[in-house]
Design brief:
The complex is a heterodimer. By secondary structure, chain A is an alpha+beta fold. Chain A is built from two helices and eleven strands, in the order αβββαββββββββ. Chain A has a domain at 40-54 and 82-169: Immunoglobulin-like. In chain A, the strands form three sheets. Chain A has a four-stranded mixed sheet with strand order 7-2-10-11, with no helix packed on it. In chain B, α5 packs across α6 (147-160). The chains are: A alpha+beta, B alpha/beta. Chains A and B meet through α1, β1, β2, β7 and β10 of A and α1, α4, α8, β1 and α10 of B. β1 of chain A pairs antiparallel with β1 of chain B, so a sheet runs across the interface.
Chain lengths: 170, 529
């Protein structure tokens, strides 16, 4: 049964609204979240690069061309599959990250992409970044850089073969 | 009844028991009709509109550009703190409260077992609302374009990048300060308006299978909630972090935990584990109706021979499970009631609304227009007649109760008859008159607490019918002082007993005052009593 409105009930309602105020107000901003501890910087290693073709293009023979439909008679046969991309990051002479990234796509014919967060201590660091975009052999892109990282810095290590390989930017 | 006869049998029911105790405590302050625990869905709707109105105001003064976004929000908060600042804070805190009411609504419906059988639609359509609510809220934080926005948008991109859906990782769009342009903010605005509109559409769909959905809370509760949120807004205005700078990492942030708990959780776990958590939780919630649960109750059945197509069952059904269709039995009537079995809760409220459910009908077998196979109205009349003939003493009381509320059988005695119905709303008011004319000094009606009827509208219809405000109503010749309504849930049997004794005392005083006045007995009961 509905009880009559009374001052006591009014005060009781006020009393119950206070926890709601506290609940809403507090968790709206607190407790704080330490995303990156003091004294650390963040490296973001990221790239999107297509590996070299696994097989070289070759010229089709006249017999092969004759077997194809007229509209499909391309002179060159280029298999679509790309090589995985291997990347290594070394800091102060110690390996920091190593990954072999397969190409994307159902036919393995799309670029390999990497995004990796690496938290490191602030200070001066010597980095060596290596990348291989072919199936075998040595790393064909190598870049060295010494950088002074401050606490809270965000260092992006990107890769663009058109710009010569690795790009270090803050 | 088979599902809830022992409230502590499972953890779910034990928690339900605890929640009902909390609700009972709130009843003392707010009254059952204004108890926020009984209006969580309506409060969510109300908060949505508060968010919408405050959002429109903030948007009117928002600059949709990389350089202007932060500045315009700061201007709003500092130069126009008395209105714009309060609006912005209210926008945030109402959004936080929305999450609270939404999650409590989900919890309460789960604990109450409101997720299977005929309720599956409402349950399942509520699941996407969780995602839409979070997408709406988190997207709003990005618009401020402060370090919290930067933290959140990068965390979200890193989370989405777990699935290789895009040619390049989304995260590559946020590597350097110049990565973000004004068009990006147009996209964010589009998302922050579009997703809440989808949320509203989802909320509308969510309530489609219930009739008379309550989307507006009681006025006192609405004002109380609004004033509380304004008070928080004034006492603790929402403030921005430092402006976003993609060349730096926001080392320490103050996330809104109601929405952004997912970001710290992801950094504690991993993007894949967060997907497993979010996806797994969603699937689990969505799959609950498929898990083993009690069988549906037998649905209402129409007897065309006793149905005149008046439409009262159609008007009173809480789940729109009764429709009116053109007559197909050849009788010269326009319409007939038809039950949609998939929507029917089997609550019997329709039987209580049917004018043919009167026990004064002379036939030996009482068959009504729309009836419940598991508790036909005819059997209720027979049970009432047996009880009236058995009772002794001058202060005889008939208690009509509800299977889902306080167990009225515990009140039965030599001078008290207890009849438990599927729902209190199943009680045709004519049964009250029948009992009084059959020798009962009074009739006590009980059921789930006000605003907490398992079948939503049972106690509301009972009160309206007894007050004479809803058909079929209790006839005017029945002294209202001989009828009492006392809502009591399972945990409130002691309170119901006290109410019964108080009623007995008032009836005794009434009997002394009206001694010698005869009440005409129903013809069928001439030999009883």
């Amino acid at each position: 049964m509905t009880a009559a409105v009374s001052p006591v009930r009014f005060v009781a309602q006020l009393f119950l609204y206070v926890p709601l105020m506290v609940l809403i107000g507090y968790f709206s901003t607190l407790p704080v979240f330490v995303h990156l501890p003091q004294g650390q910087a963040l490296i973001r290693l990221t790239f999107s690069v297509a590996g070299q073709r696994l097989q070289e293009c070759r010229e089709r023979s006249p017999e092969e061309l004759a077997k194809l439909a007229p509209n499909m008679r391309a002179a060159m046969d280029c298999p679509r599959e790309r090589a995985p991309v291997t990347v290594e990051l070394e800091m102060d002479g110690k390996p920091l990250y190593h990954v072999v990234v397969p190409p994307k796509g159902l036919k393995n014919d799309l670029p390999s992409t990497v995004y990796r967060r690496l938290a490191v201590l602030e200070g001066s660091h010597h980095f060596v970044a290596r990348l291989r975009d072919r199936a075998a052999g040595e790393f064909n892109y190598v870049q060295e850089k010494t950088l002074e990282l401050r606490s809270g810095d965000s260092l992006v290590i990107d890769f663009n073969p058109a710009q010569g390989g690795f790009i270090f930017r803050r | 009844m088979a599902t809830t006869s022992n409230p502590s049998r499972t953890p779910r029911l034990a928690l339900l028991h605890a929640l009902q105790a909390v609700e009972a405590a709130f009843d003392r302050a707010f009254g059952p009709g204004g108890n926020p625990w009984r209006h969580l869905g309506a409060l969510s709707f109300f908060l949505f509109w508060v968010i919408a109105v405050t959002g429109i105001y903030v948007y009117a003064l928002f600059d949709t550009s990389v350089t202007g976004a932060y500045r315009s929000v700061e201007h709003l908060a500092r130069e126009q703190w008395y209105l714009g600042g309060v609006m912005r804070s209210l926008h945030r805190y109402a959004s936080d409260a929305f999450v609270v009411t939404m999650l409590l609504h989900l919890l309460k419906e789960y604990l109450g077992g409101h997720y299977y059988n005929f309720r599956w639609f409402s349950w399942l359509t509520g699941v996407p609302l969780l995602w839409l609510a979070y997408a709406s809220g988190i997207g709003g934080y990005w618009l401020v374009w402060d370090q919290l926005a930067q933290f959140s948008i990068i965390a979200t991109a890193e989370w989405l990048d777990f699935f290789p859906l895009f040619g390049e990782p989304l995260m590559r769009n946020f590597l350097a300060p110049r990565s973000v342009d004004d068009r990006f903010f147009s996209l964010l605005i589009f998302l922050h308006i579009g997703i809440p509109l989808l949320l509203l559409l989802g909320m509308w769909i969510h309530i489609q299978r219930i009739s008379r959905p309550v989307t507006i809370p009681p006025r006192v509760l609405g004002w109380g909630t609004l004033i509380t949120l304004i008070a928080v807004s004034v006492a603790r205005p929402a403030v921005s972090h430092e402006p976003a700078d993609l060349s730096l990492v926001p080392a320490v942030v103050q996330p809104d935990w109601y929405y952004m708990f997912v970001h710290p959780l992801m950094y504690r776990l991993s993007p894949g584990q967060l997907w497993a958590f979010a996806g797994g939780s969603t699937l689990l919630i969505a799959a609950l109706p498929l898990l083993p649960h009690p069988k549906p109750q037998p649905v209402a059945r129409v007897s065309l021979a006793n149905c005149n197509g008046c439409g009262r069952c159609f008007a009173d059904c809480p789940y729109a499970a009764v429709i009116l269709q053109p007559r197909n039995d050849g009788r010269p009537l326009a319409r007939q009631a038809t039950v949609l079995p998939d929507l029917c809760a089997g609550c019997g409220i329709c039987a209580g609304a049917c004018p043919s459910s009167t026990p004064f009908r002379s036939g030996e077998r009482l068959v009504t227009g729309i009836d419940m196979p598991r508790q036909p109205i005819g059997l209720v009349r027979a049970e009432l007649e047996r009880a009236l003939s058995r009772m002794q003493g001058t202060g005889r009381i008939v208690v009509f109760g509800c299977d889902e509320a306080a167990d009225v059988k515990a009140l039965a005695g030599t001078d008290t008859a207890a009849i438990s119905l599927i729902c209190a709303g199943m009680l045709p008011p004519s049964f009250v008159e029948y009992a009084v004319r059959g020798g009962a000094a009074g009739v006590l009606i009980t059921g789930c607490r006000d605003g907490d009827c398992l079948y939503r509208l049972g106690n509301r219809w009972v009160e309206d019918r007894i007050r004479g405000e809803r058909q079929p109503h209790l006839r005017i010749n029945v002294p209202r002082e001989r009828v009492r309504i006392a809502w009591a849930d399972r945990q409130d049997l002691a309170g119901l007993k006290r109410e019964l004794e108080a009623f007995r005392t008032s009836l005794a005083a009434l009997s002394e005052a009206t001694a010698g006045q005869a009440r005409p007995r129903p013809k069928r009961m001439g030999g009883h009593g």
